[in-house]
Write a structure and sequence with these properties.
- With 135 residues, the protein is mainly alpha-helical.
- The chain folds into two domains: 80 residues; 39 residues.
- Helices cover 93% and strands 0% of the residues.
- It has three helices and no strands.
- Helix 2 packs antiparallel against helix 3.
- The longest helix is centred in the middle third of the chain and has 68 residues.
- This is TNIP2 protein.
- It comes from Syrrhaptes paradoxus.
- One of its GO terms (biological process) is toll-like receptor 3 signaling pathway.
- Keywords: Coiled coil.
Amino acid sequence: EVQKLNQQLEEKNGEIQQMINQPPYEKEREILRLQKSLAEREKAQATSDVLCRSLTDETHQLQRKLASTAEMCQHLAKCLEEKQRKEKGNSGDQIPTERSNQVFLLLLYNETSLQALICNLQDENRMLKQKVAHV
């Protein structure tokens, strides 16, 4: 194991000697290339961080909106049930009013639009992750 480590040390020393023996302009060119590469990686990482933060914020916002919409839906459903019970109590098996139908349609529309929005965001998130992986 010591011999193996000594061999690796000799290889590294050889690489260092090779770099030392290079003309100064080649060293500078290599340094510039490495600096450029580092700058590109830092820029890509910063872009990735911004995109991830943005998606995280948007996800949290949508989760809060979904939770509040679900609460509102539950509240409206309870109100609708109570109203229907009162109407049934007052007039037997009366058909739900037009207003009740409108509330139901509104709830259905909100749920459908939220599901579509969530699907769109998931697709966008997947595409951004692919872009980040590519970068």
